[in-house]
Amino acid sequence: MKRDKATKLTTAVAVIVIAIYGLQLHYRYVAEFPAFVHSWSQTDRYAIAIGFLNNNFDLFHPETLILNKQYPHWWKHADSSAITAVDFPIHEYAVAAAMKLTGNTSPIVFRLCTLLVALIGMAFLYKLVHELTGHWLKGLLVALVALASPVYAYYAAGFIPGVPALSFAIIALWAYLRYLRGDDRYFAWAMAMAAVATLIRTSFAILPVAIVCFEVLRTILRRTSLLPKLPAILLSAAAVGSYMAWNAHLRSLYDTVFLSGLAPANDITELKSLLSQAADNWRYSYISKFQQRLMAAIAALAIISMILKRLRNKRKLSAEGKKPADTSLWIFVGGYMLGCCMFAIAMAQQAPDHDYYFIDTFMLPLLLAFALVLRVWPRSVRRENTFSGLILVVLIGGKMLVDVSKDLKHRRDYDDRSYQTAQAFEGSEAWLDSLGVGREAKIMAMYAYPQNTPFILMNRTGYTLMWYDDDIVSAAIEFPYDYIVIENRRFRNDFPYHKQYLSHLQPLATNGKITLCHYSDSVVIHRVEDFEIATK
């Protein structure tokens, strides 16, 4: 009874610390419109949630707000619908439901929903490591390390689906550990949660594959039987496979704004170059310098401790009771890591520009490996040692909090085109309403970046034109739009270089930041000054 009360108390303390830590990191940014690093992907996901409000919550026909998709036509084909193929958007669907209930479609709703799921995932990470290591402070330390990973911290209250997918993957591993400890009921839960993670973000398929492969190995070693687990495995595979088939169907009918295939390097030389670029770009974004040193120091001391124990003929590092042996868990982690390496190779073209792929792949097995290293350390039951350990963990967490807070600020400390676009289109919905531009009007957002940002803020659908490539512009000019909208700043900066298109814009009205135009067959603007005069 006393032990149960102590466990409940330490769990409550850990959850409170995790919640305070997460809120302290993100309270400054929860109302921020997505901009800066990877604003493109983030606004696309934001638009999916808005799309569910527009399509009466049709989960199986997700849509954004743009009518010309990136794939496969590279924005050069005008579709009649904004429906798009995308990984199962259950998180965006839940966000849309929250928006409907609160009557609020601002970014704060999306960010808070993601943060809530992220903190739940961290609470289960704590539980997972606590059960794995036998000590609650070790679980809290691993959770704080995860929360303070710069890349995770940036997206934990954001729009990228990797964070909610990771939370479900953590829950799946927690359930799988319970199964390995002897409770067979949890295997079905593990496969179900792993399937949800995979549906949200396909790259998380590495986890259920690793679990199944590990179970096959255990069956070969006669430690278990695979037959009773087949229903859960097959149901999970059927759920993932069915939605993948549906997604392929959507892609064939409506195209997509999301990457839907592998992107490997062309040869080994390019592979080395791409991975080197990714390491240079994101070396301290995945895990901070302090975290790398901390984990390396703990690993080194753990190895020394293990060697000394064996030299002194102490008990070997094996399972007690129903606990699985460390060596078995290391095999699982090794297999999981191998799958992540294979995926990284298959997506090498994306690695230099997409830091959040780390959340999808290596983050979870690295955290598991760190937990296994911590498992070597003895468990102290003395109250004074527990108190001093808590102080040490809090101090380490505080140092990581300071470091990652600086990183979050640094990611926003530059003149960013996506931020400029968001600022320019702020208030554009009411402005267009005042001009009598109906919600059904199709707008061409000319040279606005990223693609969904202007349409979210205008609360309208239309066509994106982000690039100056002649083939893209010449195709877009022929789209069946009603109006063109362009940022005044963008027009002034770009007119000298792209006047063959910009000179045909006929200004209709401006709010000082953006201008509503028609496209004329003849030249209307001969100089930038002509545009300035027309928009006064």
Can I get a quick summary?
With about 525 residues, this protein is mostly helical.
List the SSEs and their pairings.
Blueprint lengths: L1 H25 L12 H16 L35 H13 L4 H27 L2 H12 L2 H6 L6 H19 L5 H15 L5 H15 L9 H25 L13 H19 L2 H23 L14 H21 L10 H4 L2 H13 L7 H28 L6 H9 L2 H7 L8 E4 L6 H6 L3 E4 L4 H7 L6 E5 H7 L4 H4 L2 E6 L3 E6 L8 H7 L2
Question: What does this protein structure show overall?
Answer:
With 536 residues, the chain is mostly helical. The chain has two domains: 2-410, no CATH class; 418-534, no CATH class. The relative contact order is 0.12. The chain starts with a helix and ends with a helix. The model is unreliable at 316-325 (pLDDT under 50). Strands 2-1-3-5-4 form a five-stranded mixed β-sheet, sandwiched between helices. The protein is elongated. It contains 23 helices and five strands. Helix 1 (2-26) runs parallel beside helix 5 (136-147) and helix 8 (186-200) runs parallel beside helix 10 (230-254). Helix content is 61%, strand content 5%.
